[in-house]
Amino acid sequence: MAIEYLNKSDLSLSQKLWRLNWLFVLVLLATASVGFAMLYSAANGSLEPWAGRQILRFSIGIGLMLLVAMTNLRIWLKYSYVLYLVALVLLGAVELGGTIGMGAQRWIDLGAVNLQPSELMKVALVLALARYFHGSNIEEIGRPLFLLPPMLMVAAPTMLVLRQPDLGTAVMLVIGSGAIFFVAGVRIWKFAVLLVATLISAPISWQFLREYQKQRVLTFLNPESDPLGSGYHIIQSKIALGSGGLFGKGFMQGSQSHLSFLPEKQTDFIFTMLAEEFGLIGGLVLLGLYILILAYGFSIANSSRNHFGRLVSMGVTTTFFLYVFINIAMVMGLIPVVGVPLPLVSYGGTAMMTLLFGFGLLLSVHINRDEPIGRRGAADDF
Amino acid sequence: MQRDNERHKNFSRRAAMLAGGKAVLISALVGRMYFLQVVESKRYKTLADENRVNFRLLAPLRGRIVDRFGVPIADNQQNYRVLLIPEQTDDIEKTLLRLGGLIPISKSEKRYIMREVRRKRSFVPVTLRENLSWEDVARIEVNSPDLPGIMIDVGQSRFYPHAIETAHILGYVAAVSEGEVTGDPLLELPGFRIGKSGIEKVYDRVLRGASGSLQVEVNAYGRVIRELERNEGQPGTRLHLTIDTQLQKLASEKLRGESGSVVVMDIYSGDVLAMVSTPGFDPNAFNKGLSTSEWNALVSNDRSPLINKSIGGHYAPGSTFKMVVALAALEKGVISSESEVYCSGETKLGNATFHCWKRGGHGTTDLKKGISQSCDVYFYEIAKRTGIERIAEMARRLGFGARLGLDLPGEKPGLIPSDEWKRLVIGSPWQQGETLLAGIGQGYVLTTPLQLAVMTARLVNGGVAVTPHLTRDIISMDSIVRRNKVENRDIGLIPSHLALVRDAMNSVVNVPSGTAFNSRIKKPEFRMGGKTGTAQVRRISKQERENRVLKNNELPWKERDHALFVGFAPVDSPRYAISVVVEHGGGGSKVAAPIARDVLEMVQRRNVAWARNKQSSGEPAISNVIISDSNDKSRRGEFGHGD
Q: Into how many domains does chain B fold?
């Protein structure tokens, strides 16, 4: 019965393509192009080794995104818990058989590609929480016991990524989930209670941090204390940013970036390179593109006639925002270096796939914005 | 439907709050960007340039020092070094092993190299060995395909071609010591050398030149990416000395094996043509760095090779002082050319007996005989008549008792005693017996070989206060001015007195009874005049005198007499003055006079050859005079003074 209904309400492919927010896709393309240009510059004016591969990845990612967008939102609703469980199992698997890299286990070697379950989890958790709160009403949300299952859904993957240890992802999972709890209508005082509880337990969680993570937090608090050690990255990044000034040093003219003073210029510190070569103006243009994407996210969330779509949109948008904020705040020395890439711009495939998967869901919400979805996936089931 | 609307409204409110929160955070990012890129931008731009731009000093080429003919005597030599660039070889051990087959590398050297390799970045060259011989360089170059990472590099280092003969004049250069650092970054360059003694020290600033600078762009690892700006700086000034290298070498040759000094100067211009002090030392060794044992050997040597005896040695002048006493006596009027003194071989003053060097005495002696046969009794008598004050005053006019201001460090003043001096320093009044001793250049009187040469010059140049110098020009940091024919002060000697003394000095050498007759120059136009001196350095006891005075070769070296000679040539129209001191060498007539003869003969021969050559062509024909610099053509006439 339900399946029949799903089929009935399905839009045709041409209808979907018509309803697709092409302007949004265009903004994504513009943002990614900024990345291509910077990667071209990072390689001293060459497509090798970064820009070319990044274009290829982005093309594949866009294809994936459209595939996700074309998939009916109900399907995502239906399989959201399954997806979450798969991601959780994979995350557990990296604990056992993951490849050692950068001092942290984060990948599963699938032969041809390395799968990073923590990235998959960022989207899967959004879907799972959206599904949970989709089926709730205001009274239920008021009950603390009702909030326990979603909190466990958040806690399980967070503990796993912390053990890896991946501080950045853990922070993103917790705050991203918190945003869904928030828009789902959980009382603000409950967040306050949780925050106080967290602060009290902070010394305990400090024990879970690896030495290098503790060092990063400590270095953040006083980067100048160790100019040649951990603080070096932040100091050099600030010098690069500051010396860029209002208009920058010009494309491919960034001395800090090109003379290797800036670490990881093609990945985590690519924003610094952009701001060095194009100045404050360049930085603001990219930030403008990001704000545009966020604004689309909000408007898609608000225009959805189903709660699942609204929650998924806010979850995806918030995850995206966290990428942007954590990365830029990090390179400017506002928060510790946690190793979060700049979305759509930094070189690398995993974060890009996560984001484009998320944007695919966002577009799916947009396409199906007029579809009411019942508590268990049916249109009239509420 | 109703419930979803309510939920939607609720959601919208919460979403707006969340969006507001995000907006605040994004504003924080923009604010931070503005702070870094606009407010603090200037500071960070400076920091970025400090990161990027590296200043390097370029050491200027040290000025050459040439002799009066333009022959380089302090030069810059290419210094071949072998370097290892670790990143260019896969196996450092193997490369070093192969290199070890060409130039021996000791175990400790290898340890040092490996430590340097670990300490430095892989593209920074490590110096394996300096001052390679040309053979080593050739061997390494030929084998370079088997020596990955090995490179030959050429630097400049100071080189003294006539090292030992010129060491005391030129001095030497060596690495800057901690106390010499002035804040001038040039001095802190690795391998930079500064003048430590001699001309190299006195004229260090002009020889040094001005440093250049190089601005390069470097990356985070210090590798040079490109050159931004280069300023070559100013090479050091070329210094033109008055020394004649060939003469210097001859004088050194004559003093070989002895500890002593020869000074030859132009009696009119004050040009020092030769100034030799033996034994010498090798200044090149200082440049490379002396080992402790080499240094100790130099310092503990009882013949003091490091001291320039020509200016830093104090000697009793002995009989070479007698001209001073004679002039003082003549000027006071206590004697005339005819005054005679009877020499019985000794004279008495109170209870003390003063001996003449000649047992049995000279008999009746006048001024000319007194000088030519060096009669001590004659001079005891006239010194007694003249008094120490007049003798001291004459000595000072002739250049004794004070530094002459030669442009070298380490000049000593000598000592001309007087009553006042003795009361002040020794604390007792002057005794007449001491005047007698001063009359024969013994006792308290101390002189330097340079002062002896200057005295001789002043005696025969008509009595003008010529002063010696080693550089052709008057040099300061901002200007180099040719010395003009210096308007020397007249020291107020009466020409007839000078003629008497000069005649007597002629008879010392050119009359058979003279003390230096055996050392005369036979070629008539080169004949010299002079005065021998034998300075006693020990006290001869009464008992020894009654038995037999020990001969010099029966005494330990340190107790033997100093042999002295002062002279001039040509005897008829003097041009050159000389002083020869041979420490503990024995008698002046036997040891010092022959040296003076050879040196004075050579300086005159070279002058004649020079003049003849100058007449016939513009180019030098004398085989041992090398003109290396065409700029010197205009300056050649200088050698013939008064032309």
A: 2
